[in-house]
Design goal:
The chain has helices spanning 6-10, 24-37, 70-82, 94-98, 102-115, 133-145, 165-175, 190-199, 209-213; strands at residues 13-17, 41-44, 56-61, 87-91, 121-125, 150-152, 180-184, 203-206. The protein is of the alpha/beta class. The longest helix is centred in the N-terminal third of the chain and has 14 residues, at 24-37. It is globular, with a radius of gyration of 16 Å. The two termini are 26 Å apart.
Length: 222
């Protein structure tokens, strides 16, 4: 038996389509499916904005590498908000984090925060699988200091891997109840989704939401 009711689990999901080969028709299917399933939001590439849907709209910036100038990330975020995005998931410069340059990480997050001020929700993708525990903690602290609303595990595109229960739990301990924690990348079945929630995730990034909600196992993907 599932420990989380379907409607409660769906309400935590950013129903996601970020594959570079996606078409406008693919996005339209995503929107209708999100509405049918009752997910919290959709998450689509910025080039697909604006969209019309009854759920919240999230997008990404600096995606997927994070190796963009902070000014470019900020401009991308501002453009997305002008086209109706309610939430922006930004990728940090992971190389800065791995080099211990946490002030620089904080500054780039702050630049995006300034470009996409509240009530826009800002999620910070830290690529946790590529970081040590010490680096995860430091980057989460930088995100909080810069005014982010969420920290997020992964893009789902990094070869180091996606979300893990360990990373989610560490991120939750670091930010307490002050920020949200989004688990994304490699969550392909109901058990994995519920495990991430149990570890402390308050949002889930899923590309195969229907399969997860129906208790099956999804194929490869975000």
């Amino acid at each position: 038996m599932n420990s989380i009711e379907n409607h409660d689990l769906a309400a935590l999901i950013d129903h996601t389509l970020l594959k570079p080969e996606s078409t406008r028709d693919d996005v339209e299917k995503l929107l209708r499916e999100a509405e049918e399933l009752g997910t919290y939001s959709v998450c689509v590439s910025p080039s697909m904005l604006p969209v019309e849907t009854t759920v919240k709209v999230a997008t990404v910036c600096g995606f997927p590498s994070g190796q963009h100038a902070a000014s470019v990330k900020a401009a991308e975020a501002a453009d997305s908000v002008s086209k109706g995005a309610d939430e922006v998931d930004m990728v940090i410069n992971v190389g800065l984090a791995r080099a211990g340059k946490y002030d620089a990480v904080r500054e780039e997050i702050a630049a995006v925060r300034d470009a996409a001020p509240k009530p826009t929700v800002l999620k910070v993708i830290i690529e946790s699988a590529a970081l040590t525990d010490e680096q995860i903690v430091a980057v989460c602290e930088a995100a909080e200091q810069a005014g982010a609303d969420f920290v997020k595990t992964s893009t789902g595109f990094h070869p180091a891997g996606g979300a893990s229960e360990h990373a989610v739990a560490l991120m939750r301990r670091t930010v307490g109840d002050r920020l949200g924690v989004k688990a994304s990348g490699g969550i392909r079945d109901r058990a994995a989704a519920e495990a991430m929630v149990a570890a402390g995730a308050s949002r889930l990034g899923l590309s195969s939401s229907r399969a997860v909600l129906e208790g099956g196992t999804a194929g490869s993907g975000y």
